[in-house]
């Protein structure tokens, strides 16, 4: 993001997410100032704050941009002091980010993707390269990216394709132990090797385009990215299974919209009575939504509920959420 002395940096975040410490260190180590707003970034009050503080680098997540665009809460405010935006946390949408650039005289959006468990990013945009909207132009320093093909092995590094992302195991800041789980089982078990090194699992689906850019397509495993927050499907399913006595089981999946952008939370439901599939699914969606927001996170939103006669499972009876994701995308 080329933060430099004299910059004023704002990024709606918290210290429990990687971007909180990033904001502190990236600004202060480079002689810049942090612009801290006490309130929701989804209001016109925040828009005025960005104007009055003369923010020069504004960080966002796609869900925030989508809300700004739909409510037009930025209208009437002068964001001309911004020299760049940066985005992370979710898959971005080209149309929404073109709109965002238009709020600041078409200054660029630098994409950034990483994880708390690797202490930073692994792929990013760059001022030193031509950029493409809602895409990344380069692995970050010290990182190697691999896209796994249908056979589970890396496709050639210069070939276009889409699949689960794997990382080279040697990188700055990456975790080496976990407090409450096996580090090997979580990140390396059953992963392919490259040049004698076992690749590290990250869990995102990535695309490498024919022009050499990278695009994010959401989560590949049983973890979803809802509103920039990684959450286990099991946590959501545990809540949904208990809200209505007619529900036998559920499967929670994140489905990316056809035009790109943040994943939508979709609940597949199997009823105890197969003839109950004509039940009011919108009413059930509202019930699921209330329970998830009350018990897990008030920012999560159930977008759709789909009734199924049964859930797809492996031979060992594990729910194949990836199959559901493909069916409902």
UniProtKB/TrEMBL annotation:
Upper taxonomic lineage: Eukaryota, Viridiplantae, Streptophyta, Embryophyta, Tracheophyta
Species of origin: Gossypium harknessii
InterPro entries per the UniProt record, alphabetical: AMP-bd_C_sf, AMP-dep_synth/lig_dom, ANL_N_sf
Residue ranges constituting the AMP-dependent synthetase/ligase domain according to the UniProt record: 5-166
The organism's place on the tree of life at top rank: Eukaryota
Identification of the protein by name: AMP-dependent synthetase/ligase domain-containing protein
